[in-house]
Amino acid sequence: METFTRAVRSDCLKMIHSAKSGHPGGACSCVDILAVLYKKVLNVPLEWDKAVNFKERDRFILSKGHASTALYATLAHCGYFSTELLSGFRKLGSKLQGHPSSRTKLPGIEVSTGSLGQGLSIGVGIALALRLDNIKSKVFVLMGDGEMQEGSVWEGLMNANSKKLDNLVVIIDKNNLQIDGSIDDVKTLEPLDEKLKAFGFDVYEIDGHNYEQIETTLLEAKKSNKLTAIIANTVKGKGVSFMENNASWHGKAPNDDELKKALEELNAK
Amino acid sequence: MLSKTQVVASPRNCYGETLVELGAKNPDIVVLDADLSCSTQTCKFAKAYPERFFNCGIAEQDMMATAAGLAYGGKIVFASTFAMFATARCLDQIRNTICYSKLNVKIVATHGGITVGEDGASHQALEDISYMRSIPDMKVIIPADCIEVCEVIKYAANTSGPMYIRIPRTNLKQIFDPEKYKFNPSAGVKLRDGKDITIVSNGETLYEVLEAAKMLHEVGIEADVLHYPVVKPFHHIALKESAMKTKKVVVVENHSIIGGLGSAVCESLSQYAPSKVYRIGTKDTFGQSGEQRQLMEFYGLTDKKIYEKIIKFMDVR
């Protein structure tokens, strides 16, 4: 797992460096969660043409679409598409758009995201459709904590509870930072766990960089027939010392020196 | 194609009944509402198929993104509320989630236009067509009577992709002969033949236009009347042919003159048959409270007002 996430983080930074833009901080914070999801939890066939016709597959929505590099690199390293495509990130004509687009037919992308606060409600809709069709698979939505400031997220949480969904798992990549600084300074979400409980969710709180904890909790959530939210405490920019817990790395590309230093650090571990 | 009988019916009732009819045939049809199901008449579907009806509460953004998810899950989704709340409130969800992912969501918005009446400006959507028309892959349809409402809803259920269908609060006078009417999604429809002026309309103003055309005939002005229920994609041929003949075009709509049918006509004519165009609608203004007919008259949308405006327009030329 360590080798896998090291490769994914390295590719995230290389892609952003090559595109001269992107979102390293929020990508690195969710790499470990994505790795465990795709390698241990989600039932999604590797051949995407087959997967889309396989109704029993689990559905994954990256609501925090700006972490697209983490998803793209995870999908590529799992084998959904060639890692060679990664270098096209954010470039004209590429399937790897700045934020995930279902229009480009990139294997693994269920729906387009990027405008924050919508993934949860999309997940609620998919979960309702699965229930109508009596399909037992699960819908996993990965949100950023910052995007929970969008009011529509709370509309979605209310709806999930109101419709008594038992096939939806919400994961919150809680890195405590947003573009303008600390979430607590900008507009606090606390007490997040109590709020989610009050909205009818079965709430887990985990270390979002501890593979074992992530795996155990996600597998438990997958089996559970309760509406589940997992607060994953993470570090923005995880893995690169000068990016860690630094909001200025939310949406900035590393220069040549910074990339070199970051890759040395990642590979030294 | 035109009706010989004078029947008045509620387009919202027709919508609700058509949903029930479609729901019986197709188990994939699901309906969403945002706490206005009695007004939009989706309550009929809710009663018939409660397991396929989802009330999202007073939360339009959530409703549109949930609709997107259901559509992605293979459902044919109808999502309804008032035109004011079905567009502006959740524009981002419609653009970035429904249309960008090209999902099979039919937004059927009731209470479009000034004829919402007494509720006033906060509830009178006069810009909704403008918003919807500008989003890639969104089809925009405004039926003119209840016969057409039923056919358009059936067309929507059988046609994949995002669609915005606007129906008014008002009861509509029957225009079309149910025996002969067929909805054509890919052409403007000529309803009256004349050489002097082209009048383009849709929705509840179409009836007024047809009446105005009769009044014009009385004074020797023969109008070509074109019905354009499909505002987007805009099919230019009928309009081009008519404008090349008459050289004068009037557009009448229950919407702002900015961004709606009038704008679509101007965009098309500027390319295919440059003509002088007079747009009748609300003029960059908010609406106000009043009775439906009073408001129609105040904003110049009744048959008589349309007639008077056209006479003036012809004089100016």
Q: Topology of this protein?
A:
The complex is a heterodimer of chains A (269) and B (317).
Chain A: H1 2-19, H2 24-41, H3 48-53, E1 59-62, H4 68-78, H5 119-132, E2 139-144, H6 151-162, E3 168-174, E4 177-178, E5 181-182, H7 183-187, H8 192-198, E6 202-207, H9 211-223, E7 228-233, H10 256-268
Parallel strand pairs in A: 1-2, 2-3, 3-7, 6-7
Antiparallel strand pairs in A: 4-5
Chain B: E1 8-9, H1 11-25, E2 29-33, H2 37-40, H3 43-48, E3 53-55, H4 60-72, E4 76-82, H5 83-87, H6 91-99, E5 105-110, H7 128-133, E6 139-141, H8 146-157, E7 163-166, E8 172-173, E9 189-192, E10 197-201, H9 205-218, E11 223-227, E12 230-232, H10 237-246, E13 248-256, H11 261-272, E14 276-282, H12 292-298, H13 303-316
Parallel strand pairs in B: 2-3, 2-4, 4-5, 5-7, 6-7, 10-11, 10-13, 13-14
Antiparallel strand pairs in B: 1-8, 6-12, 9-11
Helix pairs in contact in B: 1-8, 4-6, 9-13
